[in-house]
Specification:
- The structure is a single chain.
- This protein is of the alpha/beta class.
- It has 2 domains: 156 residues, Alkaline Phosphatase, subunit A, CATH 3.40.720.10; 102 residues, no CATH class.
- The chain has 6 helices and 10 strands.
- A 5-stranded parallel beta sheet has the order 8-7-9-1-10, sandwiched between helices. Strands 2, 3, 4, 5 and 6 form a 5-stranded antiparallel beta sheet that branches.
- α3 links the parallel β7 and β8.
- α2 packs across α3 and α5 runs antiparallel to α6.
- The longest helix has 19 residues.
- The chain is globular.
- The two termini are 36 Å apart.
Length: 276
């Protein structure tokens, strides 16, 4: 049967990396990925691309926590965290040491990522001003940020951002499946009534098993009405400010998409959510 496939290549709307430059000639158009009044980031853009009009604000970390299997109560306040290296007061790079942190309420998501759960503090949401550190690489770390330095003796900082509370979101009335490796998309998929993949080799980075993701997408497209294929490696390479890595991975993705998805009988839309 012919199904609909939405392939989102995360973090590839930048002028240098636009996927339209390397896709097969086909009907092209533009999506407004960020609704009016929202900041441009993956959570908002992906939900919007799925056609959900009531995009919930202050929800990203909640979805990531749920997609990681973390138990939450309705009144919890949840924050994403990023670990960074700081040299001479400047944020120099991301630190892949999140597994070393031992703080109550902290859950490592691997690499530089983590989740902080503040029990029964959802009412404090509006009191928090956060600092999405990936948007400030190479800048000086603000002195009044109120962050912790959990690994004593090292210039490694744990920075919380994206304060979130339990969101309200409309379920999609569709038999759908998400092929993804990241907790954010898993959490979104579950919240809108879609099942999702659970494979360790779907890493959410440039070392993901890309061929297996494409194959699973094709397999599920024969079983369900809609498949969301989310590919995150371009975004992670962008966060590492590695232009070469991002370009090479993007081209690898596009080749597989062109060779397998675009030649199938299914209705395929290939797009990106934002730039990184």
């Amino acid at each position: 049967m012919a199904s609909k496939i939405l392939c989102i290549i995360d973090g590839a709307t930048d002028e240098k990396f636009r996927i339209s430059k390397v896709l097969k000639p086909m009907l092209k158009g533009y999506f407004k990925t960020t609704p009016w009044g929202f900041e441009t980031e993956s959570n908002t853009c992906i939900i919007n691309l799925l056609g959900i009009e009531d995009v919930p604000k202050n929800s990203r970390a909640w979805f990531e926590a749920k997609g990681s299997g973390i138990n939450l109560s309705d009144n919890d306040l949840v924050m994403r965290t990023s670990m960074v290296n700081v040299e001479d007061g400047v944020i120099s790079s991301l630190s892949n040491r999140s597994d070393e942190i031992n703080i109550p309420g902290y859950y490592s998501l691997g690499s530089y990522k983590g989740i902080m759960v503040l029990k029964d503090r959802a009412g404090e949401l509006n009191d928090i001003i956060s600092y999405p550190v990936h948007m400030h690489m190479g800048e000086r770390l603000p002195e009044n940020l109120g962050i912790s330095q959990p690994l004593k003796g090292d210039d490694v900082y744990l920075i919380p951002w994206s304060p979130s509370v339990k969101p309200k979101i409309t379920e999609l009335n569709i038999n759908g499946y998400a092929v993804t490796g990241i907790p954010l998309v898993k959490g979104i998929a579950s919240a809108i009534g879609m099942k999702h993949s659970e494979r360790k080799d779907f890493t959410g980075d440039t070392d993901t098993n890309l061929s297996a993701k494409i194959d699973m997408t094709m397999e599920m497209a024969d079983k369900v009405d809609f498949v969301l294929l989310h590919i995150n490696g371009t975004d992670e390479a962008g966060h590492r400010t590695s232009e070469k890595e991002k370009t090479e991975f993007r081209d690898k993705v596009i080749k597989m998409v062109n060779d397998k998805l675009m030649s199938s009988e299914h209705q395929v839309v290939v797009t990106s959510d934002h730039g990184t």
